[in-house]
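### Sample
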Amino acid sequence: MNKPKLLQKVEVDFVLFATVLLILAIGVIMVYSSSSYIALNNPDIHDDMFYFKKQGLFAIIGIIVMLIMEKMDYHKLKKVTNILILVTIFLLGIVFLFPAVNGARRWIQIGPLPSIQPSEIAKYVVVILLAKGIEKNGEKIKKFFPTVFVYLLTAGFFAGFVYIEKNLSIATVIMVVSLIVIYVGGAKGWQLSAIIFSLVPLGFLFILIEPYRLNRLKTFLNPALDPKGTGYQSIQSLYALGSGGLAGVGLGQSRQKCYYIPEPYNDFIFSIIGEELGLIGCVVIIILFLILIQRGIKIAIHAKDVYGTLLAVGITSVIAIQAMLNIAVVTGAIPVTGVPLPFISYGGSSLVVNLAAMGILLNISSQTQRK
């Protein structure tokens, strides 16, 4: 008779926790560095620490939320999944009641209160929903109809909601992460490969029906075609990265943040990092994200149940894909699209939601069972 294998409970993943805090600290510092000039010269603000104070406050709130989520058993998410879905759909819907910002309706802004971006919540709610459904249905996921088809349809529903808010980048993140979670959950690879190949023409269609996206694609191939229009950000970003060299021009010494790059503390903050901290600073950021991804994968592998594995895979995939897309945009590897760099780009709702997700991942690590 075989004896049962002994399992030992481990503590929370300290390496992941320390890595997240380090990326967060760098992010808050770089938000100040990249925003101080604009904030100081803004006639409505006149405070070089304006964005730094707000980001610092959200960082503190986010850390508190992360610590709370780390102490809460992640299995409790199953009980509130339906509530999370309804709340997310409601938030995605009422976005259209608020004025558009730069042609997009992505934010809920009520008076002086901080704005909320529901798409940031949606990408994690989809992960929670898929993890619960896949664990519940077990081996049924090996059948494309109806199981995998329903999962894809559900993810497509949320992605479609986000897409009509003029946020193709986050809609893409939702679909890619969903495919990863479904594949890890047991779906057949050839089925998902066929879906991916079939979605490529659809992706080009989404680009073609929006003139500004088509222009971005054209200027991606040659930014000099429209140096003062759609190619402007790419050119200025490359100027920043190029002028940084190996060690950078020094913290706070960026020239591109002085109205050359629009809102340098947002999606293009990585270019300011490259200018001020050089190639060395960029490599350090990339290494930190790679460590975070490695720890997330390790937690997923050693999770004590399927639900924990799928949650860990989904959460890690969201951060990984967003980081890769943002860095690819800044370095000119793909067309310009609005994807923030997790934990570093300015944004309250994004920061708090991402840290809450890290809390869930840390809780999964604290319940990991190892042989």
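The longest helix spans residues 269-302. This sample (Probable peptidoglycan glycosyltransferase FtsW) is used throughout the tutorial notebook.
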